[in-house]
Amino acid sequence: MSKFILEMSNITKTFPGVKALDNVNLRVKKGEIHALVGENGAGKSTLMKVLSGVHPYGTYTGEILFEGNTCKFKDINESEASGIVIIHQELALISYLSIAENIFLGNEQQSRGVINWRDTIFRAKDLLEKVGLKESPNVLVANISVGKQQLVEIAKALSKEVKLLILDEPTAALNEEESENLLNLLLQLKEQGISSILISHKLNEVSKVADAITVIRDGNTIETLDKEEDEVTEDRIIKGMVGRELVDRFPKRKSNIGEVIFSVKNWNVYHPLNDERKVIDNVSFHIQKGEIVGIAGLMGAGRTELAMSIFGKAYGKKISGEIYKDGKQIHLNNISKAIENGLAYVTEDRKNYGLILEDDIKRNIVLASLGKISNKFVVNKNKEILEAEKYGEKMNIKCSSILQKTVNLSGGNQQKVVLSKWIFAEPDILILDEPTRGIDVGAKYEIYTMINQLANQGMGILFISSELAEILGMCDRIYVMNAGKITGELTGHYASQEKIMKCIVK
Amino acid sequence: MEISKRESEEKPSKKETKIQIFKTLFRNNIRQYGMIIALAFIIILFQILTNGILLKPLNITNIILQNSYILILAIGMLLVIITGNIDLSVGSVAAFIGAVSAILMIRMNISVTAAVLICLIIGGLIGAWQGFWIAYVKIPAFIVTLGGMLIFRGLTMVTLKGMSIAPFPYEFRKISSGFIPDFLGTGNYHIVTIVIGIILSIFYVLWELKERKAQIKYNFDVIPKEFLIAKLIALLIVINVFCFILAGYEGIPNILIVLFILIAIYSFVTQNTVAGRHIYAIGGNEKAAKLSGIKTKQTILWVYVNMGILAALSGLIFAARLNAATPKAGTGFELDAIAAVYIGGASASGGIGTVIGAIVGGLVMGVMNNGMSLIGLGIDWQQAIKGLVLLLAVAFDIFTKSKSAKE
Q1: Do A378 and B288 lie within an 8 Å CB cutoff?
Q2: Does the ipTM exceed 0.90?
Q3: Within this chain, do residues A90 and A165 fall inside the same structural domain, yes or no?
């Protein structure tokens, strides 16, 4: 038998219009901790979904060997049966069931449909001891911290006789002490012979515990670093993560930047459900006329929360701070106020927050500015059609007609509808939150061109993105956010992916 | 030779495009027209089964009077359901308002106009009360209005002390049992009714032509002339035949005028106003609507205020028709109104539905009730068949929806 527990070779997975994985190779040795790193959208999660059977056999090409056997998983049950367990970033626990019930969910300790509670509790206690969680198995999951919930997930994996444990960003929501514990647990499991794949953005953790590191970028395997052979440092990993050349992926623009038109000072926001938890911590920034300002950072850094809390307090509690527009202080207490004051926010989640999917294109485009096509309270439907058709053409929305329901459009075209809606509102400040997420390259370019045009017309644009290349390619100035704070400000000329990444992984 | 060949080639192609236009028109409107066709079918069926009694002038008048209060509730319920909510309390609210009106008019001798006005205001306040809990405190509408159903049924019994109060003043009863006066009439036929039919027809034709003109002005495609003429003729026949039949009894009932005005207003509000758009947007995707600057809480509150006022109106009409306020009035009205809205093509998850659809849905139920009673079918079977119709109507709706999604 080979020394590898898992060999994935030449995995290629395409979604309509996008090649998510392109001949990816991943080989994990028995009993090692193998880190998988790469930017958001590089293809890490897709690769893990292929491995765990979420994307079933036949929807991808390539070969998977697990313990020397070819795997053709049809669903997640089959992969779990052979000993591969994945723990997602969003934990799959049921809040109002106890720890023990969660551990054995779907795998109940039972005979003929009747649960054996004594066995359940007894085995749960044993598993909790293994993962070092000092809680009674009868405590509800809702009542323990996220860090402990993470341990429950691992206990659940152990109950299934796991051989390969996959952790997707396990420490993203944990504090330092909890992260430390979790990493130590991984090392312990390693000693017991359990291999694991660790997906993480925190390079200090990766370089600390991982035996080998595979870097993925744009759906390709870039390299695999082995601690025994290569010298592994954070800088070395960053270079692998971002070292791509930018060849005309972004339309050229000559920026024409004017005076400051929008600024936010000392902005603080607390979590809407937990007013102890500070989500945005004393953030100040400004935008100039005709300027594209980027906000870089990882998911969960607080970028969306910042944008939404500014946009008429659409997010958060106990919001404090000042907003100035054209030098005058303004108070944006609700969303319609924000729109009146010339703000627009293009959401990162177009399906849940951007579009009314059951409605057609034209009704979506005019939704935020019905006043512009109405005479007092009466909508002029003919004018509505004219305006919508104008935007349909201008934005090159591919559809049978503007009467088509938005639910039937592709992601890129849906995004164009959302953009049209806000451009039709004629804002002075346009906030774009991940405007190109899940969109194919062609549509991306069109959207970049549109954004450049808007900036040239004098709009101030706040550009939030997790894709560093995009931020660098588009923005005049870049703020870097981490854990609710701005941890760096770079002007376009001096910024580089390495510098941004350093601010992010601080 | 050449010319005739070309002509023969062109002709079928032109015909084909017209068929195609008709096909797309049909497909786009099948959900709307489907129920109208079903209604026509049900009318014809019972007309045959009852040996022509169904469409006798007296019986048509009866159908209108029997169903008016449900149709009014259905209009309000439609808006509630479009926002993705529900209101189970309307039957109890209608009963409560009936009781209050009896106290005001019979016990306190307040004038009819003042009493009606007070009742409508109370209805609005009840709506505001429920809307507040739903929109601002975020308690599910089902629970709030289930509570309301019990609260106002209880208050009805408290107000009436468990007894019926009767009789109402003559002018009040006229609301639901009166007919418009026939100042032109001389003989057997109610001339004013026929004149109203003709006037309505003229207005309708002029309105259609105006719309068409505006569309041509904006350079839009318009439906071919033949279709327009066919559509106009069909509707003119329906309007005038209907008026002619009514004229054979006592003419147009007052309540029909009220209903007509309500349908016109609410159709316009839902289809052509900013407020209407907001209501649909909230039901379609509340979060997206909110992020588009729509004041979602306020809108939902007003939708419930509106529901309260219409429930009050419905209660008044029912009390006037019965000529008594009774503790058991309005039992089950909420379910009839909700069924009417769903049969009329509204979506249970919100965002979809039309006033005309809800009215058609209400009429489907009303005509079936009436027809089944006429042929002597017991109330037991009536219930069962109505339930089945509701189920089939919604199944049809889901079927056409999934079919259009595939295309």
Answers
A1: no
A2: no
A3: yes
